[in-house]
Amino acid sequence: MIEWSKADQVFLDMDGTLLDLHFDNHFWLEHLPRRYGEANRLTPDQARNLIVPMIMAERGSLNWYCTDYWSERLSLDITALKAEVGDRIAYRPRVKEFLQALRHNRLAPVILTNCHPDPLKLKLARTGLDQLVDRVISSHDLGAAKEEQAFWDRLQDHHTHHRDRAIMVDDSMPVLESARRAGIGQCLAILAPDSQQPDREPHPEFPAVRHFDEVLPALTAQASAKPQA
């Protein structure tokens, strides 16, 4: 599936890969429409029918993920509203064991996320995820979303790496396709990003797992076979 021995760098998406995408889906599809409706005398359904097309029109761009953009567009404090449902922020299954196994294999884990810095702070404060990886890099600091080739070109200036010896793990197929075009050596798809939603169908061109327990045996065996430093 994935040849971990051929890598020295593992890039990891955050939402839907390390953290349960249920938080974000609940926020954008349920909580935000309800609060927007309250502010504008609309029912949640009316608000959802207005907001969702606006969001979808920005799909794949940096605006899609930008808290500042949506705060201005909707005249609401998006970061504050996200904090209202912050108790839904949670790890996906076996994430901590997976990150530990990467370290045992001397595979440097670095988060590459499209999450805006403001909600990113909220999520890291809730989970301590930044303490379990080498770095956390937001696409907003690079000025391009992961779906864009400009992201991968600028990433090298922020984090030196060999693309052909890197692995990208993400639940977004457009991101994985972008990573592959950029020369990232291996890509792994996540099929169960939201604990409250059905699994996604596998992509014909990418190896895929539901949860990290499917790769832990290979990583554990590889770590055991390596000579101690």
Describe this structure in words.
By secondary structure, this protein is of the alpha/beta class. The protein has helices at residues 22-40, 44-56, 62-65, 67-74, 78-84, 95-104, 117-127, 139-142, 149-158, 173-181, 216-225; strands spanning 9-12, 108-113, 135-138, 166-170, 186-190, 208-209. Strands 3-2-1-4-5-6 form a six-stranded parallel β-sheet. Helix 6 packs parallel to helix 11 (216-225). It is globular.
Mean pLDDT: 94
CATH class placement of the largest domain: Alpha Beta
Helix content: 40-55%
Structurally, the number of domains stands at: 2
Q: Could you describe the largest sheet, including whether it forms a barrel?
A: 6 strands, parallel
Count of β-strands: 6
Keywords: Hydrolase, Metal-binding
Organism: Marinobacter segnicrescens
GO molecular function: metal ion binding; phosphoglycolate phosphatase activity
GO biological process, one term: DNA repair
Draw up the topology in text:
Elements lengths: L8 E4 L9 H19 L3 H13 L5 H4 L1 H8 L3 H7 L10 H10 L3 E6 L3 H11 L7 E4 H4 L6 H10 L7 E5 L2 H9 L4 E5 L17 E2 L6 H10 L4
Helix pairs in contact: 1-2, 6-11
Quick structural gist:
The protein is of the alpha/beta class and 229 residues long.
